[in-house]
Automatic annotation (TrEMBL):
PANTHER family: ANNEXIN. Belongs to the annexin family. Keywords: Annexin, Calcium, Calcium/phospholipid-binding, Repeat. GO terms for molecular function: calcium ion binding; calcium-dependent phospholipid binding; phosphatidylserine binding. InterPro entries: Annexin, Annexin_repeat, Annexin_repeat_CS, Annexin_sf. This is Annexin. A pair of annexin repeats may form one binding site for calcium and phospholipid. Coiled coil: none annotated. It comes from Neogobius melanostomus (round goby). GO terms for cellular component: cytoplasm; nucleus; plasma membrane; vesicle membrane. The lineage of its organism: Eukaryota, Metazoa, Chordata, Craniata, Vertebrata.
Amino acid sequence: MDPEYFKSYEMSWGTLGTIRPYSNFQPDRDVKELQIALEKKDAGTLLRILTNRNNAQRQVLAKTFEELTQKELGAGVKKVLSGDVADLLLEMLMPPMHYEAFRLEDAMAGLGTDEETLLEILCTRTGPQLRQISQVYKQMFKKDLEKELKTETSGDFAKLVIALFNKTDVAGLVHKDVQTLVETLKEKKCDMAPWIYIMTSRDTEHLRNVLDAVEFETGLFLEEAFEKRFSGDLRLGLKVLVQCIQNPDLYLANRINAMKTPQTHRVMVSHCEEDLLCIRAAFLKLTGTSLYTTLQKHFKGDQLTALLNICRSED
């Protein structure tokens, strides 16, 4: 295991995630339990251990398991479990950046492209994170992520996607950015270039101030303005980007609220060690019902057990 992994993804009890380091972590003991559970096809034990250790600890378990058995833990999970719960545990065994790379590849695989998943990752991840994901993507799939994104998208939407992929943090003046964006909305044909440039080259706090001021000066919510001035995937992309700038927790809560497999799984797994507590709070405010209770209405069996373990508790 690369020691830098632990430096990059060390979690503490102060995190806003729901899955935290297991305080009495004993890899050898866990691996013995996992071996017995795989032999007996004991799904309960597999779920209990793998959803109650953080990602760094799961990487240790996978490495220790392979050293002791000369077999991959993931392969064993595949033999014992199937369907959605197997997919969920296999995804939890991936290191974080590998998981995001996997999600991007999956969104572009086969016929059609899952634009919403591309946007979710590109809009909620920072520039440095996306550069890490790009490096891991190349190692995993032997392809260049930026080239793949260009191939899978087209037109103005492709320009937005590539700008998000290469997002930067350039200093700017709020009043100048506001003036530029307001002027585009007054033109007969709205120029999308300033929107793409400004919204992918400023820090989040700056952008929140800019977008609030644009809404105040135009008297329109930006979603209304985009409905009138843009179309197709570009409109979708700008809407998602604005939502992620203004309230990323609410955006992700909405994604989870679709209660679709694998969408709900993947947002929860991606954010369970970072900010799932915030997303849970946003979900409660959005729906009036806790995420913990809502999951119980839409899923069942081992799949439900795994999701409840990730969610952790009632709100």
